[in-house]
Amino acid sequence: MTTDDGGLYAALLRRGISRRAFLEFAAAMTAALALPAAYAPRVAAAVAASPRLPVVWLRGLDCGGGTEAFLRAARPTASELLLDLLSLEYHETLMTAAGEAATAARAGLASRFPGGYVAVLEGAVPTADGGAACTVGGRPFGDVAAEVTRDARFTIAVGSCAAYGGVAAASGSPTGARPVSGLVPGDRLVALPGCPVNTDNVVATIVHWLTFRQLPVTDGRRRPLFAYGGLVHNQCERRAHFEFGEFVQAWGDEAAQKGWCLYKMGCKGPETYANCPTVRFAEGASWPVQAGHGCVGCTMPGSWDAMLPAYRRLPGIVPLAPEVTIDQVGQVLVGGVGAMTVVHGAASVARARYRARRARSVAGPTAAATPRPEEPAPAVEPDPAEPAVEPTPAVEP
Amino acid sequence: MSRVVIDPVSRVGGHLRVEVEVPGPVASDAWVSGTSFRGIERILTGRDPRDAWLLAERICGRCSGIHGLASVRAVERAFGIAIPTNARLVRNLLAATQFVVDHVLHFYQLQLADWVDLGSALRADAAATVAFARAHDIAGQPDAAYFERARDRLAALLSAGAAGSTGGRHPAYRVPPEAELIVLAHSLEALDWIRAVAHLQVLLGGKEPHPQTFLVGGMALAPAWGGPTRSAAEHPQVDHTTYPVLSARGLADVQQLIGQVQRFVREVYLPDVLLVAGYYEEW
Fold it and tell me: Is A39's Cβ below 8 Å from some Cβ in B?
C-alpha cells in the first residue's frame, strides 16, 4: 500500500519547484548529517527516487511539542514532508479518523506495509499503576507502542521524554515514567532528545535512512553522532568570549548587550551534547544562546534534575576542548595553580567512574552487535537513576 | 447500543476519551476524560521558583510558552517584582504571536475536517472552483492550475491511513465541494505560512515550541550595545554574522515577519472562517 508516486523530487517538479531548490535541500541535509559535501548528489538521488515512507506516530506522556516542532518544519516544509516525503498513517493530533476508525488505522501494519514503515514515538511510557497514566483506546500506551514498534523498520524516539523520560520522569513524578528504549530493540531505535526535538534532526535521520538504507551512527544511548556528538559549548558562537574571560554577570548588563558568554548565568552548554548552535531553529534563525538565555541542557538525560538550577553553575569543571589547555581553564575558573591539581584529579575520577558505567551499559541488553564509536565523556555525571539503561519489565513486549 | 465510546478523540492537543449514553435520538449523559496525566504540579513542588517556568512551560507544546509566561508572572506577583517596559513588550509580542498561530492551526489542522470533507473536495471541478472563488471574492483570485495542483497534493493525503474512512460523504457536511477545495488548498498554504510565524517566535524566544527567553523579572533578550566596541580583528573568533533581535536590523526583521503573518490572517484565514461558518450558522 506504499504510495509509489515517484518520490519527493517528482512531486516537487510537479509543483514547479526547481531542480536547484531540490539540490539546495539535499545540500542542507548533507550538512546537517555532517557528511562531506561530496555526498550531496547521493543524498539527492536517494531522496528523489524514494517512494513516500509510511509513518506511524504515537504520543505518550508528552506535551505535543514534538508534533508542533514537526508542523513548523522548514527544510523541507511541513506540507512537503506530509504530502511528498512521508505518508502519515497514524497521528492522533493530525488524523481525521477518531475512535475505532483511528484504532483500525494502526491494525495489521506489517501486512499493509510490506516495504516497511517507520514508528515515531513522542513522550514517555508510564509504568506505575499498570500504565494508567496514559491510555489510548482504553489500553496502556506502553502496550500500544510495543505493538506498533515490533514490526517497524526502525523507531525514532522524538524528544527527551521518549528518549529519557524527560519532564514526565523528573523527580516528584507520580507516573513511573520511563523512556521508550525498554520497548524497542536497541539496533532499531534512534533517540533524538531535546525539548522539543529539533525537526531538522528528525528529517536528517529519515534522509540518512533513505540514502544509505541504514541508521546513522549512534552513541551508547542511540543518539546519532551527527547531532549529539559535539558539545554545545564547543560549537557556540559566544565561545570566543569564554576564552577571553568575557562573561555576562547580570541580566541586561553591558556584557549581555554585547553578546558575551552566558557561562556565569548558568549556561549548561559546557555539559550538553547537541547541534543547536549549528543547526539552530526555524531555518537557522536563532537558538536560545543567540537570543540571550543560557542553554538548559534539555538534550541530556535527567536534565530536569541534573541541569537545574538553570541560573547557577553546576559544581563541575568545563570539559576540555582541543584548543583549551587545563591551564587556561584553571586561570579562568579558579585563577590559582594550587586549585588546578584538585580540578584535574576530580576530572580523572569522574572519567574513571564514567568508563566503568559505560562498560556495564555496553554489556547490557540494549547493546547491539554493531560496533559503536566511543561516546564522548560528559563532564557531569548523568542522573544516577539512569533511566535509559534500566529494563522496564512492566512495559516490555 | 446505548453507550458510544470515542477513544482516542483525534485532533486535540492531548489524549481524550468521550463516552456518551444514547438511549434514543437524544444523548442522556456524557463523560469526557483526559487519558494522560504527568503530575507536573507535584514535579514542581519544592523547586527553585526561578526554574519553575521551564517546567510549567512543558505542560503544553501546542500552547507553546503560555504556561511559562503564566508561571513567571505568578512568581513576579508573589515577590512583588515589576518588569522593565522592554521585557513587557517582548512578552506581549511572543504571547500575541502564539495567540494568532494557535487560532490558525486550530482552524486548518484541527477543526477543519469536522466542517469540510476531503473526499468530496477532491471531486470539485477546478474551473467551477475558480468561478466560486471569483463570486466570493477569494484573495489572490487563483487560477484553475492552482486548484489542480492543490487537488493533486491533497490526494496524497487521502491515500494515507490518517485521512480516515474514504466512504461516502457524511450528510452533516454542508460546504459545497468548490468551497471545500478552496479552504483545503489554503490549509496547505497555512502549513507553509507557519514558517514565517516560527521564524518570528524563534527570533524572540530562541526556539519554538518552548521559547527559552523568559526570566523571573524580565526577558533574557538584551538590546544591542550602543557604545564603543572592539574591532572585528581584535576578536577574530567571535561570530559577527548574527545580530541581536533588539537591534534596528533585528527589529526590522520582526516587523517584516509580523506583516507577513498579518497578511495571511486578514486575506486568507478570516475570510475562510467566515466562508465555512456561513454554512453552519446555528453552530
Answer: no
CA distance A86 to B201: 26
Better-predicted residue by pLDDT, A251 or B163: A251
Question: Is A282 in Cβ contact with B202 (below 8 Å)?
Answer: yes
pLDDT at A397 over 70: no
- CB nearest A283 (choices: B84, B199, B206): B199
The ipTM of this complex is: 0.93
Average pLDDT, chain A: 80
Closest by Cβ to B58, choosing from A72, A167, A292: A167
Q: How far is B215 from B94, CA to CA, in rounded Å? A: 14
pLDDT digits (tens, 9 = 90+) for A98-125: 999 899 988 889 999 988 999 999 999 9
pLDDT at A4: 41
Predicted confidence (pLDDT) per residue in B9-31, tens digit: 999 888 999 999 999 999 999 99
**A105 contacts chain B (CB < 8 A):** yes
Give residues 8 to 27 of A whose Cβ lies within 8 Å of B.
11, 14-16
Across the interface, of B8, B38, B215, the residue whose CB is closest to A167 is B38
- If you measure CA to CA, which chain A residue comes closest to B16? A136
Residue A123: closest CA among A54, A169, A185, A173: A169
Cell numbers placing A142:
506502553
The CA distance from A198 to B27, in Å, is: 44
Other residues' Cβ atoms within 10 Å of the Cβ of residue A335: 10
Q: Is the dihedral of CA A312, A315, A321, A324 positive or negative?
A: positive
B227-231 average pLDDT score: 71
Please tell me which of the candidates B6, B59, B149 has its beta carbon nearest to residue A99: B6
A52 contact B CB<8A: yes
Complete DSSP assignment for A118-173: EEEEESBB--GGGGTTBEETTEEHHHHHHHHHHT-SEEEEEHHHHHH-GGGGSTT-
**B chain contacts of residue A66, beta-carbon cutoff 8 Å:** 61
Of the candidate ranges A223-227, B72-76, B163-167, B222-226, the one whose mean pLDDT is the lowest? B163-167
Size of interface A-B (CB pairs under 8 A): 306
